[in-house]
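$ fold --in a.seq
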Amino acid sequence: MMGIMNVKAIKTIFLISIIILSITGLVIISGSSHELEIVTKARLMPKLGDYNTEIDYFYVDDFLISGNYTYLCGHKTHTTKLFLAKFSDNGTMEWYKIFNESYGYSYNQYAALITVDSSGNIYFLTTRHIPGNDTGMLVLLKLAPNSTVLWEKDIGTIYKFKYFYTIMQMSDNAILIVANTYLHNLTLLKLNLDGATIWTHTEAFGDNAVIVTTKTLVVNSTIYTLVVKKNAPTAVADKNLILFKFSSEGQRLSYKTVVERYSTAIDLESFKYSADDSRLVFLFSNNTIYKMTLSGQIEHKFSLSSVDFYYYQDIAIDDTTGELYAVRGMDYSVDIVKLDESLNYLHTFSLSFDKKNDTVSLGYNHAVFVKNGYLYLAVSVGKSNYHIWAYFFKMHERISPVWLLLTTTLTITLTASIILLLYNVKKNVQVKEQHKTS
């Protein structure tokens, strides 16, 4: 009798242990149910004669999804050697061009930026490199959908524009360029599709002010520009983030200081529009994301440092759900954090590369887009400063098959263990009742 009781006790303990382990396993894997599946992976593939296999590398400066095509542009080996490539949605490279002229002023934040009009024509913005001269001239090239250069135009004088920040399509018949004049002035230029100037507008900040960076959006023909300004000489906490609002004709409608006197070590990384709730969203280099109204009233704030310390570089917003994706490049991977429309944390994803690749660099101006439920990512991957290639990835989110298998297995195990445990308890009670009556 004692032996039977020991066996029953051992069975009970065993079943309780399985139940505890199953519950623990379900808790552990509960946060990793989602993953990103790569649908398309494409790489810039130039012919051998168009690059030096020993020294050349390709860094993405800008990235655009337009229609059924993806465009990458950037610099090759040096910021005065530029490339532009067009891919179909399935990753097939339609064509590429490598510009060996002295474009791409080396002091600019980007070597080149692009936009595409409704007819598929590409507008390629860079600068004329002036050797030995600390200045630059804006250069705009228009290319046909088949890559033929239709025209090239210089904008401004040699000494006027040193930095450029934005080129985008404003409407079916106009594009917008935002540039920096002599470091102190912000200039907006609206051009028609032949490159002729429709209007210009300049905001002068004074000789003691320096524009550090700026990001611009066009929302329903209204222009929103965030400007990071600091004073010279610079104090430790002397940056201000200013939101300007301009009409489609270049009149300033309003301006507001959104964040005052913050550290000079912090810069503006990304600025996007959330169509789901008509809000503006921006990312600082200290991993802080802000969401504000179109008038500049901050409503939500989230620190990605609560997820991880390393800084994130770009954000993208799903226009349908309002969900936000923040991305950063690491040594061997790209990390992606997903937040809901109120900036609450949802998931973290990781796109890993072979560890022989010690350089993973995101697109400098744009690195990530969300379109029709797919996440697009532009990244440069390779070894040190050579054999680095420009890629783009098209991905979609799904329930992880491994997670689904583990969850199903643990759930079945947990359910079966509970049923067996209840059966054993019931049986033990019945046995005890029989002993009492006998």
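$ fold --in b.seq
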Amino acid sequence: MRRTVVPAVEVAAVIAAVALGGRLGIIVLLALASVALALRGRRWQAAEDGDRGSAWALAGGAVVGALALAGALAVSPAVLGATGAAVEWSTAPVVRGSAVQLAVAVVPAIALALAAELVFRRWLLERVASPADGVIVAAIVEAAVLPAGDAGGWGRLGTVLGSCGLGIVYGAAGGRVAASIGARVVFEIGALVVQALRLVG
């Protein structure tokens, strides 16, 4: 019975997340993935998350996130020139030029980053037999769930590439989700900061 119920819940979770999209899709995916994990007798925290390597993984991930942000800033003019679409830095353009709005946007941005890394790396990636295939599957689902913004297809391509990068960071850290969380949080908060300071167009 459980062998058929768990996959059904997992498939339903992905379908519902894609249908709803955005933050609500991530929340629904997190909730249903939690149910699926419970049915399998598992939990979100893995053995690797409590060892000393997790602190180093978090720090290393943060460095990767900062480097990725710097790289994105560097290529942003070229992307605009080649595609005609500006880089979609975040889903919170309201922070542009406003320190107050930046402070308000930081908390939900961190929460969403944590939820996204749990569902896409710790859960979905790990549910695929091959780690390489898991990186790709997680990236495709993430691109389908998260909004593409004004960039459309280019925005989804950027999401796929970013998600693949986070999957590689996760794998390189030995499956320690702290690494991909660190990278994502630093990139997301950095994107909000550069918008608030009007460093990007």
